[in-house]
Structures are given as structure tokens and as C-alpha cells.
């Protein structure tokens, strides 16, 4: 997705919300997160343009629906092997975000991201699945209706099993930027636009729908009319 629509990095002093980030008058979308995995997932959402985030424990088969305000930009991901106390503080093997259940900043890679930018130019929603931060859980990100939408996106491959040895991490397949920390993989040189690498091609071959490096092709960004509802399915069948 266009990096101007989805700013990466931590956001400080985030507000907290629980079930909804919309109002009764909002024309925004709904996002439903469904855990189709055989084990527990701790879902997380961060809305960078609204300065809030949240999280929820989802047992296998459980779902969580949020109302989103127009023009919200952010991302959804799943955390694995978490242990939180009665104050909702703890750690996770993947997707960890500053030790809290209700994420107030971006998760620590590796993590599979479902990114969204709602009701943007021409009243369109933009969405994608990104493996720029690595991979931890298979994800499907799709509209509840196909009307007016380009398509959905899915990354259901067993990337953790096939992950190159040098990118392997507990519970996931790490981002090459996190491992090698060079501009070739991190694309952090403002004067030089980086290109695909053998690692981004590895991700792309297994999941053709995804963003595999920060300047991936525009075909990885999907569009729907503003106000469309979406499903994020962890471990799609």
C-alpha cells in the first residue's frame, strides 16, 4: 500500500478503546476478526489516524467485530502464545506490543499484517496484506460483499515451515530487514528506491497477493467502495 496512506512505526500516547471506534452516526466500515486457527489467537488492531488501539483474546472459532470511523488508517494482526495477567499485562511469542493486551503501538516482527485505509481518495477503501514485517499467522482479508471491490487478499501458505533458515524465528518467519538491517532490505534510504530481493520473492511466490517489500507493485493494494465491511480470518481454510 502507498506508504503515505499507511505510516509505519510506533505511535505514542495512544488512547484506549474496547468494542467500537465508531459512533452511531458513522458511515464507516466494520472489521470482523475471526480465529479459524486450532489454537488461541490474541487479535490486535492499531488505528494510527485515530490514535487508539485495542486487543482481544480469541479462542478457536471466536470472532470480534469493530465499527470503524471514516478515514481510519491502520492495521490488524494476530499474536501467538501470549500470557496476560489480570491487569492485562504480559508477553507474546509473536506480535508482542509493549506488554499489554490492548496494543498501543505496532507489534514487534515477525507478524502478518492486514492493513487498511478507509474512505480515502474517491471515497474508496484501500486494503492489503503485508509481509514487510515478516510472517507469523496465515491471514485472509476480504470484503463481506464483492460489489464494487477489486478482490480480496489471502496468504494461507505454510510460510513458517518453508522459511529460509536465516529468517527463522520462534513462532514465525522474520523480516529480512530485522535480520540484516541494511537499506537493501529496509528501504530506509530516502535518495534510493529499493527493489525486490530473493527474500521478498520467496514471500511473493508463496503468497502472490501480498506486499513483500515496502515498494511492492500496485497490484498488491486492493480497493472497495467506502463503507464496505471486511473480514480478517486467521488461518483461513
Automatic annotation (TrEMBL):
Keyword presence, Endoplasmic reticulum: no
Disulfide bonds: 37-235, 82-92, 97-103, 155-207, 163-173, 177-186, 187-194
Record keywords, A-Z: Disulfide bond
The UniProt record lists the keyword Disulfide bond: yes
One Pfam entry name: Thaumatin
PANTHER family from the UniProt entry: OS03G0233200 PROTEIN
Family under the similarity heading: Belongs to the thaumatin family.
Annotated protein name in UniProt: Protein P21-like
Amino acid at each position: 500500500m502507498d506508504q503515505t496512506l499507511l505510516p509505519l512505526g510506533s505511535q505514542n500516547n495512544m488512547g484506549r478503546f474496547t468494542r467500537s471506534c465508531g459512533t452511531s452516526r458513522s458511515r464507516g466500515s466494520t472489521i470482523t476478526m475471526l480465529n479459524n486457527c486450532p489454537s488461541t489467537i490474541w487479535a490486535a488492531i492499531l488505528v494510527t489516524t485515530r490514535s487508539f488501539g485495542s486487543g482481544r483474546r480469541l479462542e478457536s472459532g471466536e470472532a470480534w467485530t469493530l465499527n470503524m470511523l471514516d478515514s481510519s488508517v491502520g492495521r490488524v494482526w494476530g499474536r501467538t502464545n501470549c500470557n496476560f495477567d489480570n491487569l492485562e499485562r504480559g508477553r507474546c511469542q509473536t506480535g508482542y506490543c509493549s506488554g499489554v493486551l490492548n496494543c498501543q503501538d505496532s507489534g514487534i516482527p515477525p507478524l502478518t499484517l492486514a492493513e487498511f485505509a478507509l474512505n480515502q481518495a474517491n471515497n474508496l477503501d484501500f486494503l492489503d496484506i503485508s509481509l514487510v514485517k515478516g510472517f507469523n499467522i496465515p491471514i485472509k482479508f476480504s470484503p463481506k460483499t464483492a460489489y464494487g471491490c477489486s478482490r480480496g487478499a489471502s496468504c494461507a501458505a505454510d510460510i513458517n515451515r518453508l522459511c529460509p533458515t536465516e529468517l527463522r524465528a520462534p513462532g514465525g518467519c522474520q523480516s529480512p530487514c530485522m535480520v540484516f538491517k541494511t537499506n537493501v532490505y529496509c528501504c530506509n534510504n530516502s535518495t534510493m528506491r529499493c527493489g525486490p530481493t530473493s527474500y521478498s520473492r520467496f514471500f511473493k511466490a508463496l503468497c502472490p497477493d501480498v506486499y513483500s517489500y515496502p515498494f511492492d507493485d500496485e497490484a498488491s493494494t486492493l480497493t472497495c467502495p467506502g463503507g464496505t465491511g471486511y473480514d480478517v480470518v486467521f488461518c483461513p481454510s
